[in-house]
Specification:
Helices cover 23% and strands 31% of the residues. A hairpin with a 2-residue loop joins strand 7 and strand 8. The termini are far apart.
Length: 210
């Protein structure tokens, strides 16, 4: 009788231990699924690796991208199932690089579907009108004449339906739609909206992206 009574509390402790481990495992699984859901459909973090968007974004900036703003897309096939809004001129977007789908690029939307885009002597025109408050910068001609990224004159080109014309703000050092063409709408991942951390430019932390 004594032996049996001693075994019962021990078995109870084992069951409680297994129950606690199961609860921890379930909580971890839920946390992982929630994180994957948020990353896939709501917001994703990226790090800026190049100076193509200077001075808006600097090398070392860590940014957040709103993936819900342009609608909910199914993973892998990139089909929009819940439309929300469409990219607008001036939006800074992250997208799948059309030439190499294994890479993500970040640029500014300049031309919408149907727009006519042209650059005349460094001045940007959309639909034959000067682009308002163009954030693009050029270095002095004497320092960038040999740079293939320097395009003082470009176009005109018309943006096809379902596509967007994008450019980096650092016009002399941006490999963008001037060179490889347009961004298909399904390739757009979202809009960059915040610098949540920047090293060594720590004072930029929590800056909004315009």
């Amino acid at each position: 009788m004594e032996s049996r009574s001693n075994e019962e509390p021990e078995q109870g402790r084992k069951r409680k231990k297994k129950s606690a481990l199961r609860e921890y495992a379930e909580a971890a699984a839920i946390a992982i699924l929630l994180a994957l859901f948020i990353r896939t459909f709501v917001v994703q973090a990226f790090k800026i690796p190049s100076g193509s968007m200077e001075p808006t974004l600097l090398i070392g900036d860590h940014i957040l991208v709103n993936k819900f703003i342009y609608g909910v897309k199914l993973p892998f096939i990139r089909k929009t199932v819940i439309p929300v809004s469409e990219p607008d001129r001036g939006d800074v977007i992250v997208f799948i690089y059309p030439v190499d789908p294994g890479k993500d690029f970040i640029k500014r939307v300049i031309g919408l579907p149907g727009d006519k885009v042209e650059i005349i002597d460094e001045k940007l025109f959309v639909n034959d009108r000067p682009y308002p408050e163009d954030p693009g910068i050029y270095a002095k001609r004497s320092t960038h004449l040999g740079n293939p990224g320097s395009k003082y004159n470009f176009g005109p080109v018309t943006v096809p339906e379902g596509h967007y014309f994008v450019m980096g703000d650092n016009r002399d050092h941006s490999y963008d739609s001037r060179f490889w063409g347009f961004v298909p709408e399904p390739s757009i991942k979202g809009e960059a909206f915040m610098i949540y951390w920047s090293w060594p430019h720590w004072q930029r932390t929590f800056d909004t992206i315009d």
